[in-house]
Amino acid sequence: MSDIKKLTTPLTEEAIKGLKAGDSVALSGVIYTARDKAHKRLVETLAEGKELPVELQNQLIYYVGPAPAKPGQPIGSCGPTTSSRMDSYAPVLMRQAGLKGMLGKGPRNQSVVDAMKECTAVYLAAIGGTGVSISHAVKKAEVIAYEELGTEAIRRLEVEDLPCIVAIDWEGNNLYQSGIEQYRED
Amino acid sequence: MKTISAQEITAAVRQLCMDVNYDLPADVEQALQNGLKREESPFGQYCLEQILQNCQMARESRQAMCQDTGIAVVYLEVGQEVHITDGSLADAVNEGVRQGYADGYLRKSVVMEPLFGRDNTGDNTPAVIHTEIVPGDQLRIMVVPKGGGSENMGAVKMLKPADGLEGAKKFILDTVRNAGGNPCPPIVVGIGVGGTMEKAPMLAKKALTREIGSRNENALYAELEEELLTEINKTGIGPQGLGGHVTALAVHIEYYPTHIAMLPVAVNINCHAARHKEVVL
Hints:
Chain A is of the alpha/beta class and about 190 residues long.
């Protein structure tokens, strides 16, 4: 595995172009959480020509529905959820709202990779099922939209050195394909 | 005749919901340790190390090991000589889930109705309850929190008898390959063969709760479990789907008699957090 690269939001094209599939990344700055239902609403809002409740230009969305925080903690367990459920929404957010980064787990479909290449965006993966250790990288969390959705509300997180891997880079290099090809024996 | 009150059941379920989400079963943890020893992919090793470390942290801090604390699947084996008093059994279980998920800071992931509103019920109820009447005067309660990422990757197919063993193997391996990195590998694969359209997935889910690596008593099925595990670990999917040799920790098959015209096969996939915990009242 590579040396750990520091990545800070908002994401610049220069920073994104410096990342290659397989790079280890320590992510810091402000990121926004959204998963199934929030994505549906965001994309519907764009289709209606209305303003989004969160500015996504050069920002990164983390696919997560956190567990409730225990007293004294900013957030509960908060590992990534399966990204492929957001595949039908992500290209719209990249093309129409300027989204530059996604953090989740698992493979993406070709339409997402195409939009990433077109918009110079990056897809990062965190390790699914490591929600407690990831929660230690979250310094602050607040709900900023869709509060009624509970765990699916949009949260603004301040993170420090959240550990992740570049799973698909802006050129479309895809660790989910190359990694499996490298080890398959059937 | 043994009398068990609804309150006792609620208290037991409440406790199980918390413990099961904080404390990974020892056999699953051991299987992850063994996986780490044989994994050659650096990403795979890193993932397994992080998963094991997280599991330790969750146990020590009594926090949910994964934010997806699941929909609560609750198995009840009710002795036919047990008398339940002071309330209904299902209500007692759901109240236990409600209390456990609230008091344990566990995520509420259940929506009331699947197609139109999908509004969150707010307390993780109702549970999916499977009740079986068995001989004796005990009540066995097992809680299995099932996460969405892995559950979504399962499948059931009504094969033709002519498809036979080869058809079943192909369906199982295709299902695992298609799941790829989505269900948080290394996975546990539960397989149900036979019965009817609904019986096969019931067997597959129950198979997930067997001790990791235990073998079916029927030697033919035990051999098939071994063979499928080897094949699945040749797919290259590896931990988290980033490539590697440790794609599955175990394959468990359960079978049931079926109709002359039928060959139902169900695959239920569990993520590496193969959580289940039980208590006997």
